[in-house]
DNA sequence: AATTGAGTTCCAAATAACGGAACTCTGTAT
DNA sequence: ATACAGAGTTCCGTTATTTGGAACTCAATT
């Protein structure tokens, strides 16, 4: 019943049917209530499609009568949330970028954490991420890229499952044990790589370890060849659970590096936590 | 009557009343029609506020009865477009980031242009932008940052006026003369710096020059100390008007650099145009 | 010329949004 | 302690928007 569930479900749908999803998938979409919700349903579908969908494609994926759907799309277009190509296919509109840009650059938590992850990047020379827990996913709020990374242009805003990412596991370890176990049961485990922790048991065992050390490792569990070292952080006052990580290709990493990074990542996480408390002390709103 | 106008107006409102706008400003906001539009009005206000507004702040800026506004906000929160802080202040929600991330990374034009601006960055070593024309503004679709830039963290998604930016002027020069003149009259000129072109006449004269050379200069017209060299590009088939630029602090720039960059920027723009046509040839939709 | 499929428009009926007023908190002054 | 004021929330009859089926247009095919 959670928004996150729904989005995860959509992602699955897409993963299972690489290309011609529109024609075959019999609309597994549960309609939301409220005018706004329905409009966002449509927007979601448009945003999540890899090829810009056309009217009929949408009609297949969204359980609405033609007339209704048409008006809903028209509204989205009128508001600038969706744009139409000359060939009548739909793409997400620029207004989204504008809104999100504001959301992002104004996010106080990100602003507060930024200097610390920047420093972490300078100390390690590798790609650094700042992630935030949102339901069963981690959403990347910021990243600083290592000099030359070919693949992966800006994860910012992207979401990944908690169970197979360094920051994700670090954040889970920050939850009360029961809550953590509850979530472990809710995941739909997918074995991204041979090392992915793909059962609640495996996951919870590792999280117990993370709780001891404060450090979490991603040993090519999400993408082959990619490892990372992460630490969690939280702030009860604001109800924030987040994490920072250093990521690098496995072949480039020496054991010395790992040990180094563990210290640095922990320092960064603690520094951010300290700043959060400090900021909340003097004046509560700003 | 344009969306862009409205947003520009909002920006003005903010610029004029730095801090306690909520209390004093008598809500210059014209309500949009349709449920969606009203919801987005609220979202806009939340996104554009510099401090997270509280319920009463919003009530002051949006001309709606308390009960109504409250429900509208509740809906936004339920949809994840807005989040509530513990102290009941509102911030834009993470769902926006997620939607925009998809919108951005899936944008075919951006993907197509990316290798070229990357190359431009490598050739110049300076910060490079890719901008798209949207109404009276340029929206930055991508940028690659020069090694150490302290200020300005990610312009991506941000909007600036056309008349005072390098890419903006370059794009205007791509319009038919009448259309260009029409827009020149629509701007609300603000003298950001002493060199800002602040009348239609000044602007049109410069644009005529840009039309000859294909190259546009920002001579600290938007921000003091910042100069840039830009070139416009367009594609009639898709109706896209865009531009690329190289930006750097004025003190660091030698005359040789400028001449160099002119050539490189033009090359990049032409290369992107060529790719667009090529992409549109083989198969029209993808 | 006829047929199909895609996209668009229309309007009575159903539904969701509206908005005024009443209510609940929480912190502050008496 | 008690009253007060301000912020935030809920309720419900009224009102306006959304709904969805059907009819219509346009372009490409047969």
Q: What features would you describe in this structure?
A:
The structure is a homodimer of 286-residue chains. Chain A has 286 residues and is of the alpha+beta class. Chain A has two domains: 3-94, Winged helix-like DNA-binding domain superfamily/Winged helix DNA-binding domain (Arc Repressor Mutant, subunit A, Orthogonal Bundle), CATH 1.10.10; 104-280, GAF domain (Beta-Lactamase, 2-Layer Sandwich), CATH 3.30.450. Helices cover 48% and strands 17% of the residues of chain A. The first copy, chain A, has eleven helices and eight strands. Chain A has helices spanning 3-16, 21-24, 35-48, 55-61, 66-78, 94-105, 108-124, 166-172, 177-186, 200-213, 255-280; strands spanning 82-84, 90-92, 127-134, 137-144, 159-161, 215-219, 226-235, 240-249. A six-stranded antiparallel β-sheet of chain A has the order 5-4-3-8-7-6, sandwiched between helices. In chain A, strands 1-2 form a two-stranded antiparallel ribbon. In chain A, strand 7 (226-235) and strand 8 form a beta hairpin. Chain A is globular and about 60 Å long. The interface between A and B is large, with 61 and 60 residues. Chain A binds a DNA duplex (30 and 30 nucleotides) through residues 33-35, 38, 54-56, 64-68, 70-72, 74, 88.
């Amino acid at each position: 019943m959670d928004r996150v569930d729904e989005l995860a479900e959509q992602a699955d749908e897409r993963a299972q049917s690489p290309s011609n999803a529109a024609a075959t998938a019999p609309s597994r979409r549960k309609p939301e209530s409220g005018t706004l919700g329905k409009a966002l349903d449509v927007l979601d579908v448009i945003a999540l499609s890899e090829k810009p969908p056309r009217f009929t494609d949408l009609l297949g994926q969204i359980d609405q009568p033609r007339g209704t759907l048409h008006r809903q799309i028209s509204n989205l277009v009128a508001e600038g949330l969706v744009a139409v190509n000359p060939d009548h296919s739909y793409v997400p509109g620029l207004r989204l970028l504008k809104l999100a840009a504001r959301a992002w650059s104004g996010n106080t938590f990100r602003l507060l954490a930024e200097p610390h992850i920047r420093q972490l990047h300078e100390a390690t020379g590798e790609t650094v991420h700042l992630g935030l827990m949102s339901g069963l996913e981690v959403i990347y709020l910021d990243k600083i890229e290592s000099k030359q990374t070919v693949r992966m242009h800006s994860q910012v805003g992207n979401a990944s499952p908690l169970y197979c990412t360094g920051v994700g596991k670090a954040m889970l370890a920050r939850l009360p044990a029961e809550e953590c176990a509850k979530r472990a049961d809710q995941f739909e485990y997918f074995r991204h790589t041979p090392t992915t922790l793909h059962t609640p048991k495996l996951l919870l065992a590792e999280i117990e370890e993370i709780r001891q050390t404060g450090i979490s490792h991603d040993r090519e569990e999400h993408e082959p060849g990619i490892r990372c070292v992460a630490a969690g952080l939280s702030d009860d006052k604001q109800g924030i659970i987040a994490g920072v990580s250093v990521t690098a290709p496995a072949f480039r990493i020496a054991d010395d590096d790992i040990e180094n990074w563990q210290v640095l990542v922990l320092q960064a996480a603690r520094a951010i936590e300290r700043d959060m408390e400090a900021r909340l002390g003097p004046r509560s709103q700003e």
